[in-house]
Give the backbone structure.
Amino acid sequence: MNINGNNLNPFVKWVGGKRNVINKYLKNFFPSTFKTYIEPFVGVGAVFFYLKPQKAIINDINKELIITYNVIRDNKELLIKELKKYKKQHSKEFFYKLRTKQFKNDIKIAARFIYLNKSCFNGMYRVNKNNEFNVPFNGKDSEKLNLFDSQNLDNISLFLQKNNIEILNNDFEYVLEKSHKGDFVFCDPPYDYENNKHGFDSYTKDSFGQEGQIRLANCLIGLDKKGVKWMMTNHNTSLIQTLYKDFQIIPIVTNRNINSKGNKRKNSGKEVIVINYEK
């Protein structure tokens, strides 16, 4: 069975996810060969699942997200069993009750994570300063709730089991230090916003901010000197233009997926792809 030949799709929705721009833009700039694939802000893994590397290090600072990756790999059947229970109990009252709960069991943490993502407004993951999930109910009834795709979870589980994939929950700088010459790093960090206004980086209780952007740029400049290939995506802001002025900056236009008005999502995102190699 060719595990890497199976289609793999993100198992939840994620603000800033790259699923819609891979075929339009990103695939034209991926390096043709590399040793280890490294993604320090993996999110729901659209690029990771598209490339399907045999050797990779994926990481995210969101602990519940990383627990979910591990549960899909190691306990997929028990996860599906728990999700089926949630599907039967689905309602506005159940959503808000589950939103307030905290679990210590990894399977229950993963099931709650997926259920809340699929049942909340616009599939957004957002927490407050107390690290409490605070996105409202999306109003869908049980018949319209597409909670999980069994075949996709099967494919992801097998892929993670059969390949050399290290899954981490750490700071991005720690992960980038693991790279070596010939590796390929894909960075999709929380985006920069001009004057830090109207930004969204509430994936955890700690904001990424401009300090995070500067720290990331310094890390990537260091990787360039080591011979590591990297690609970084972000908003097309003056800060990003300044930080990456010595590298190839490719402007792109994307659809934003969190505006409450659908007609304002199309072609409303002014973004860039930054690479440190010739393509």
Notes: The first strand starts at residue 37 and ends at 39.
